[in-house]
Write a structure and sequence with these properties.
This protein is an alpha+beta fold and 67 residues long. 19% of the residues lie in helices and 33% in strands.
Amino acid sequence: MSHVPGPQWLKSSYSDSGGNNCVEVAPVRAGVAVRDSKRPANVFVTGRASFGALIESLRSGSLGSGH
């Protein structure tokens, strides 16, 4: 039986140096998996378009502004 590797998790460059206080993301077949480094077993998956819209909202500062 061959080994199937798990997702390749990526951490933001804004994460703390210890790597214990960050959001991690990984590309998966169904879209983008997201987890909290403090609770790595809790993962949610969203579509690539939705994840892209979230990132764009964070970059522009419009997240939570009611727009």
